[in-house]
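user: can you give me the structure for this one chain? tokens are fine.
assistant: on it. calling the predictor now.
[tool input]
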Amino acid sequence: MTLETIRKRIKNDQETKDLVLSDSDLLKVNRYLDIRGQIIDGYQAVLKTEPYVEIIYVPTQEKKDLMQKIKLQNHLHFFDSDIYLQDASLDKFEVFNEERAKTLEIVHDFLNNYSKENYYKGLYIYGKYSTGKTYLLSAIAHELAKKDVNVLMVFMPDLVRSIKQGISSGDLEEKINLLKQADCLMLDDLGGENMSSWFRDEILLPIIQYRLSARLPVFITSNLTMESLAEYLSAGRSTELDYIKSVRLIQRIRDLTRYVELNDDQYKKR
């Protein structure tokens, strides 16, 4: 194909007809016309004309969605369970009372202000069963993962089981270090596990203390208020020392989080 033939082809094309091209650019644009519309491994050619003519390859929307999914997966980690709701979104979080509206406001406040370089308190999300605590936690995790924040999300009953298994498998210390050092730790359903005093004092307290000292955010959901959680953590153990240890843990959780409440009541009529 001669340069003149190529030039005519370019002039007859709706996309390229108005381009003013040198002979060397003619070959680039001709190549672009040959491959335009083709999708190769999720990428398609785009002709860039400023500041100079070149062919660049951009991902299709499907490829972008896949890359975003992989990126999120790389920043979301779990402990022997998959409680993360992939379709959870803050845009879809139901706001139908003042408490939920206030909670969403606090969530956005965290997301707008927190970064790896700028510590910000996480949330202690209290609510009865089926009020959307795990959904909200997943939506927050989704937003953080998009910001390249490594999120470790844990379902507390599964964590207790995993820690016990770690004793026999020899990876207990590795698991504890992951819980201590993750950019953001999310503990779902605290109080829903069968927690021993050993787990409370030797596992959970050191993790919370480390994250408080290192200024690493923690998010917690629970069916228990903090006051009820303190009673739960010392329940069945009548010694004053057990109660003191439980209160110490609760105080550190208070220092790490902002307390919010979710309920399913509708707006009160005035």
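assistant: here you go. The longest strand covers residues 43-48. Strands lie at 39-40, 43-48, 54-59, 76-78, 122-127, 151-155, 184-188, 218-222, 257-262.
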